[in-house]
Structures
1.
Amino acid sequence: MSNFLSQPVYRGAAFLRNKLGNLTWGPLVSLARSAVLAQLAPIAVGTLVIIDEPRGGERLVFGQQDDEQQQPPTNGATTKPNGTAAALPANGNHHKSSSNNSSQRPAYPGRSNPPPPPRVELTVRSEAFWTRLALFADMGFAEAYMLGEVDVAVAAADRDGGSGGAIAKPKAQGDTVGDAQPTTDEKTTLDGNLGDACASGPRAGGEGGQPGRGGGSGGDGLAAFFRLFVLNRDALGDGATPLSALVGAVAGLARAANTLPTARLNVAAHYDLGNDMFAAFLSPDMTYSCPIWREVRGEGQEESLQQAQMTKLQRFIDGARIKPTDHVLEIGTGWGSFAIEAVRQTGCRVTTLTLSREQKALAEARIAAEGFADRIEVLLMDYRALPVPETPYDKIVSIEMLEAVGEKFLGTYFARVHQLLKRDGGIAVFQCITMPEGRHAAYSRREDFINHYIFPGGYLPSITQLLNHITTESKGTLIVEKVENIGGHYARTLRLWREQFLANFDERIRPALMKQHPGMGQEDVEVFRRKWEYYFAYCEAGFVTKTLGDVIITVGREGAVELMEGIPL
């Protein structure tokens, strides 16, 4: 579908989802509620507790029950979604309950002991939640959360101390993450139309739309909720309803392709929100991609996020075999962390490309502060517009930029890499978040929360897609040397980013938003906060369950003998 036609259709799908999702007509809500509860009935792994505030705090429990919960309710019966009494097995369906769950708090993923099944408490604040979820499935749930129609927490007895109430607010900023403090010269005001970013989906206000009323516990509960659904995916399916599938498919077809002008707008929608915001949750190196953590070696040996990011950057410097004489092309600057580290270690020359004015400004300031302005050139340019130099680049590096290319232009991307990389001995290293092969076809047909609200135009390829394009577009001259999946390292990273984002929101992020956009109301700011909280938790769950991957692919031309360094010949 052409961009000229796609935008009206895309906006129409969003308008339909917003209007229908706000309906709270009694009979419709009852029908929607029954449909949702029936869909949740097959939960068998973990526990989901629903507290329905509009119905006087009625409590429904799905999934596994502990010893206390397995005792029959005081009325000796369970309640079906349609309200009729029946005896249901304790391990499968839901029943009314007034008891709290009690179990050990889940261990953090990555430790030697696997975490127990999640136990999640979902509090419904508005009846619009049921309509939104029944009609629009996962997108409906995301929008209900952003609007404050539902809050999610780890079940009460699983929290530290075993008491009820919201999970404690993340600790104040420490020295292991989120310490980036730009100098006065580096600080920039927030740019981009953030009002539109907050308003791109449901707006605050209207029927049932009062964001943040519950002050929910947020990300820990959200991550556990998403993990619960992944663990029960075979029984629950993808949760799609006929209407949600139709709207998602229409929006997916209408999604604007990443043409040259559209690509810049899509990047600006995420990265031009302001450097101060990203500095509030990233580590001081300002690397916004998956790091590589050391293996857990016991208490007291915890490394900082910055150390983990440096390990990943080192993997790229070593993997590309960068030498002082190399001219390196980086596609996707970020805030300059790779270029700075590569030049610091090797003395090479780097040309780096970005489509974000905000990133370019801060990257250049950081580069100048390091004294590397004569070695690093930052270009505000699309990779398709970069002229092929008389002497092609010795090495090409791209760190989590491929997700912004879009399905239609994956071939174009690797064709450009083929044109820009020297033919004799060139080496390229790419990092990209991937979708598993088995889920990729369904993913490609539908719009989801990430490519609608966070990364417009974004697309996660499969590993097979990447490898096929590398081979085809290079006419077989880019030889795959190594494929490494580091996706498991992302879960902890996203958790740390989320904790720092929330810990610093009131002090650093909220004032910056209000200063740049004085017309924003408090409800708009709250929608923005909950959107990002949802984003971090949504992605954390995807990686901790290995639903998503993140691969580093190293390729070399014939004659790239540097890749054999260290091998006895």
2.
Amino acid sequence: MSQSTLPVRSTDPETSYAAAVKAALGASRVRPIVLDIVREKGPLTHDELIAAYHDRVVTSLGQVPRSSDSGIRTRLKELAHQGLVTVADIDGFSNYGNAAKRWVVVDPDDPSFVYDPDAIAAYIDDEDIVGFGHFLDGDASDAAGTDED
């Protein structure tokens, strides 16, 4: 892992680099466990996922790395960006009784999760399409508007 990919500044002390390396390595161990928990127990809210993760840490006899609540939420968000998990149709409730998103693993064999450009195009009417050819031609002068508008 190069230092340019670590979330540290060039002016940070060496301890920051060491912490960033440790966090990056830990994240790569936590992420598949988060995915496994959502696959086994989903749909789950953040609170339910965090509780399930901490239960797994306790019952694993040292095989599952500890992680902070925010670290678990961050790993879930990374999985969502990778297209491996998504928000479920029905909300759950947080530990405080508030509405909360529930997360599920994306099933690659489920056609409802497959990218279909025709399905997306069905939601767009012709009048919703805005031209931007003048930007491609390098003439962006009318993009900012003029006094004549």
3.
Amino acid sequence: MKRRDFVRTAGGATAAVAASAGATGTAAAQEVQPDWPSGAASGNVGSYTDARGQDSVTISVGAGSNGLAFDPTLVWVDEGTTITWEWTGAGGDHNVKTVDDGGPASLDSGDPVGEEGYTYEYETSSEDAGITHYHCVPHTAVGMHGGIAVGEDVATVETGGANTGWPEDIAKVGVPLHAHWVGISAILGIGMTFVFTFYMLKYGESAHTGHGGAR
């Protein structure tokens, strides 16, 4: 067995194992968002902004290719943040109103208007803490919905990342998997790779391979 062949083969296999472990870590990295009501989460455009730490945030009314969306559709803010809805002038007349039993914030911009540049401001407070689902009354049937989450005391879910079912979802079947176990598994995999490669190069070559004999 040539040392050069061993190093080359083992190094390549080890790199593959390490890359696989790195990909697993990336897939497990997920973003935490409020647990939005289905009606709000399925609103047109479907964009999300975490505006915590900001004093104010602006939401476009009449966004999207047909002017029938709020953008960002879903917003997470602190208590005391001022939210401004600004009309684009597209999509007809719109308004902003909390759906029935839609949450703690009492959003109501009044009658629908279509004027570009029209605005509706709402300053959140502790009374608005939680998640509120709102809509445009004239266009509720075509998906013009949105949501705001206020404060830190809201239900959250993890979103994003590659949902492969392994390893991030294994706990759902009763097997908690922690990050250090993933690391240990990767180290064992690298070690076994070296052992297997050594064995194959030492004993797996044919009698006529690499000895420079006559053909």
